[in-house]
Amino acid sequence: MFESASILCVGNELTEGTTLDRHGRYLSRTLGELGIPVRKIALIPDERDLFLSEVKALMQQSGLVIVTGGLGPTSDDLTRDVVAAALGAELEYREELWQELQVRFGGRQIAEANRRQAFIPAGSVVLKNIVGTAPGFMTDWGGGCVVALPGPPRELSAMVDQSLLPLLRQRLGIRVEAVTRATAFLIPESELEEALAAAAFDQAVWGTRVEEYRIAFALRGGTEQDRLGMLARVVQFFDGFRIRSGEVDPVALVSDRLRDLGRVLVTAESCTGGLVAKLITDLPRSSEVLWGGVVSYCDTAKSGILRVSPATLGEHGAVSRQTVEAMARGALAISDGQASVAVAVSGIAGPGGGTVEKPVGTVWIAVCGDTRAALTRAMHFYGSREQVRRRSAVAALLLIEDYLT
Asked: Per-residue pLDDT averaged across 259-286, rounded?
């Protein structure tokens, strides 16, 4: 049905260089797996006339046009209006979208501006947003269809996986193919590619999709036993901690596991500055699985709030097994029985502060519960301060999942 596709990424932050575009690469690989080649990838600012002319031009060039971004509630979120204008359609109010949005806000006051997110071009199919608030949509026109996806990467990838791909497979008549999917965390793309090549069997085919917190990869060819054997060899290159079967998001993985087990988490963070708690609260219904958290950056905060012994800090230092285990136990105590699992993170994010014994990038993580001994792990990360912090938060989520498993 679609001989080719075009991708239009919208946002001043993209054309001004403040945000790196990851959508073009991700969508190109995803569409390529369906046999739809991408003809063009374009970045444009939030300018209505340029936006409209570009959409119309792409509709003449490709049967499938995917627009990313511009689905929020503000005046510069133009995608709904522009796509409707390009299609010659009216915007249609969907009451069910407004109701779903109110549920997302959990009874809190919603600004009237948010009602804009309940309008989509008439006749469109809604693409549900399971991570954020802005729904996407797919609208047919004479020569193909236009798809609108949200800008935030986690929202976009979740919408593609859960809503868009099933629709495209159905339209293309593609049956579920023989494929084994997995996810890599905390592994550079080049190292994963080398491991896949070394582990491959004859006629194996694989593809990778790099996202903010993970690399999703798919193995094709051979029998299921061949593919599972290849995956097992990849795991041996790294370990089961950094490789997970299936396409999984670390935040959703932990949140779902906590919810399924009826457990509630409390966090105690130093170098990550609250990032673990922030990632969990990015998802809706996070109050069901997160009690709260403490950012105990200085030693006096660790001892004064989390009751870490000054002797422990003096003998072993803030970045140590003993300290993170004490931080986790202290966080559990603070929750006064309302949390049953605690995670603690303490490390040296850099660029300064490292020593020969504990260089920059050294991070200790501990997870403990109300009935079991702590699960503790030392990690060594490379990169900028922000990269170390981000990787530490992902590692903490993975260790929580391991503990719960």
From this structure: 95
Specify whether the CB–CB gap between 138 and 125 falls below 8 A. Answer: yes
Residues in the chain: 405
Structure letter (DSSP) for residue 21: -
Number of Cβ within 10 Å of residue 175's Cβ equals: 7
The pTM assigned to this predicted structure is 0.70
Single-letter amino acid, residue 14: L
Range of the domain at 154: 5-172
State the Cα–Cα distance between residues 231 and 244, nearest whole angstrom. 10
Structurally, the chain folds into a number of domains equal to 3
Complete DSSP assignment for 228-262: HHHHHHHHHHS-TTTEEESS--HHHHHHHHHHHHT
> DSSP secondary structure string, 300-350?
HHHHHTT---HHHHHHH-SSSHHHHHHHHHHHHHHTTTS-SEEEEEEE--S
Q: Are residues 79 and 116 in the same domain?
A: yes
For residues 111 and 150, membership in a common domain is answered with yes
For residue 94, what is the DSSP state?
-
On the question of pLDDT at 374 being above 70, the answer is yes
